Amino acid sequence: MLFDRRLVAGLASLWTASLASAATCTSNLVIDNFIKWTEGVNNLDWQNGDDGSMTSIAAAAGEVVFVPRALDSYFYESFPCQQAQTSGYGGLQFTVQGPSNGSFSLELQTVADCNVTTGHNSSYNIVGNLTGQLQTVTLPLLGFDNNPNYDAIVGLVWTVFSSYGAQWTIGNITLVCGAVPGGPPPTATVLPTRSTIAPTPTTVPTVAPTTACSNLLIDDWESQSRLTFLGYNAMGQASSDDGTMASIVVSGHRVMLTPSSTDSYFYSQFGCLDTQNKYGGISFKIRAARGTTFAVTMGWFQTCGSNNLKTATLTSTQLKWSFDGTERLYWFPFSVFTGLDASKLNMIYFSTFNAAVILGPMSFYCGTTATEYIAPPGGAISAPLALATSVVPVSNAKSFVIDSFTNQETNALGQWHGGEDGMAAVFGNNKLTILTNDSDANWNTQLADGCADMRAYSGAYLHIAYSGSNKFSVALQQHNEKCDDNIQPAPETWDSLEAARYASAKDIYMPINHFNINLTRSIGFNLRGFYTRDPTVITKIEIVDSVPAGWTMPKKLGSGNLIFACTRPNSFAFAIDDGDPKLAKRVMEIVKQADIPVTFFTVGLPLLDPTTGLGDIYKEMASHGHQIALHSYTHPKMEGLPDVAGIDWEINNDLGAVKQVFGDKGHTNYFRPPFGTEGARMRQQIAHHFKDPNAKIVMWSIDVEDWLWALTPTPENQLAAFKRDLASGGNLVVMHYLYNTTVEYLPEFIRLAKATGKKLMRVDQCMEDPNAPPLT
């Protein structure tokens, strides 16, 4: 079994000295032996669980047994802030059983100090090479990265399990009093310095860098979706593991590669790149456990444009690299690879891993001196569009309680409340605890069975009494004009506000008139767009006529218009998302034969890739009168991104990609959020960057469910889904040309839509946009 730990003499002696001077603990602190599992708490009476991320989970006899559903499944333990170092705790111990040679990541959550009640910093450790039998893991606290504050530990998270669908067991989680077995010895040997670890070739070519040369980035691990959903690096070239890894996780400009076997590999391509007389080699930071080994292969073409790829391979041992659990800069000059032609480089290829590794930004360095590429910090975030003044309105409306969480089935109005399937929410002691970082998950509390007229409360406020995290959105939903759940769309729209902008440490006050909807058709409030694992505890949701004296109310920010249906009478629109470039021409043929205009939502990064041909395809589509709209740069769940800088990165790069391909004619204020994931932060930034408070955020009222049925034995269910939503009044379609079955059903979709007597048109036309081309 391998685990990361810092065996550095200076740090070890510092830790030993700190334990000696601490208020010595008298016994181990048992965090969880699962005797209170049925109560939803651990031994310290704080929450634990999986937030619904596991396929199954149960506890008995001192341990929890679970089956991860996916790579991002996790199990967490929260507890009162522990001053571990001051109290004399030296390590963390728990039992584990997983697949032989399995691995996982352990996250240590800390805060700045124990007086801080929200937010946390994350530090990580990799545990690997499991035996397949029940075993005890003892980790010295010194072994976590990012220099955590060991005097303010608030949680643990087990995640990135190397095998999902397999059974795992964790038990008897304990903070160990005093020095731990296997911990940093007082007289640890000082490891070799970085300069002695780096390769020392016998001959180093002289490379004269050009003036003002800077590292050429290969990948900065900016985006999980760019790498694992689209398969690109920062150069816009192919990068993938071809499904051979147990997991690939991108976070904080780092990528964690967890192999499923020694056959796992990962590569990043450069095209056919000439680095001669400018770049001398490749550098990147690596963090891996002691004893980790892998191989590095460089590939180059004999002639650019040919398929004649040459390769040379060296192991990490041959490169004189060794690892100890700390992150350090590693590099190699091209000269160490025999026969390598640096004028026609094609790829770097990693293979034969014996354990997980974490890579930092990877780049070509200038000249003969290896340097690190430093990922730039998130750019400055401009203030979103402000629409309303911060004047506090006055209301004469009578206050009333919507929800006090005394009943699991209904709220204080006797109306339904609850979360969607998979929503991790716990009732107890007249409060609701929400535990999720799934930005698609949401909790509803209704005002009425059909429509509630909230005009009398337009000058009042929504008040939410809470504790914990305020990293979520609050939406007020609007029903369709018939107030009928059986008619599409239902709801017709909603507006979302960012909870953190309206919050103190314990209260959220939102003016009802900040929700840009038709108040005569209000349905209820919806909590959504969660983007942290920190729990949110809510004790009351109510309407009040005033806010506390001195309360500062923020301005209403532009949040665009959320669209589920066409507004033009007797109209219908196909809004088609990106798919397989090989199927794009077939889609063009179908819509041409049907003689209809459609709207295509395109992802920016593949649009720029000349190998896909999508740039030329979409320019041809635009020339035939079809609308080209935006669908993000790399297709992540944008509201789930941890910060606004990440949302801005997606929007700005998408706008830049469309402008690069279409020029100024590519400007559009229509955007479809990937996966339909919506929230206030994303909407505010869309409105800001589009310079339009009414930017169109396009959803759908007809879902062909290609994502669900296209690759199953019953692809005809796509047609059934289309007919179902069409019969319910839907008139705005979502579909992808990812699958051949979906594309071949498109002519029938079009025939059925025409049979309704409605006129088929672009989305901007069906929304009666004055800037749309006239109907023909």
UniProtKB/TrEMBL annotation:
The keyword DNA repair does not apply. It comes from Lasiosphaeria ovina. This is Glycoside hydrolase/deacetylase. It holds the Pfam family Polysacc_deac_1. Its cofactor is Co(2+). It comes from the Eukaryota. InterPro entries: Glyco_hydro/deAcase_b/a-brl, NODB_dom. Residues 1-22 form the signal peptide. Keywords: Carbohydrate metabolism, Cobalt, Hydrolase, Metal-binding, Signal. Gene3D superfamilies: Glycoside hydrolase/deacetylase (3.20.20.370).
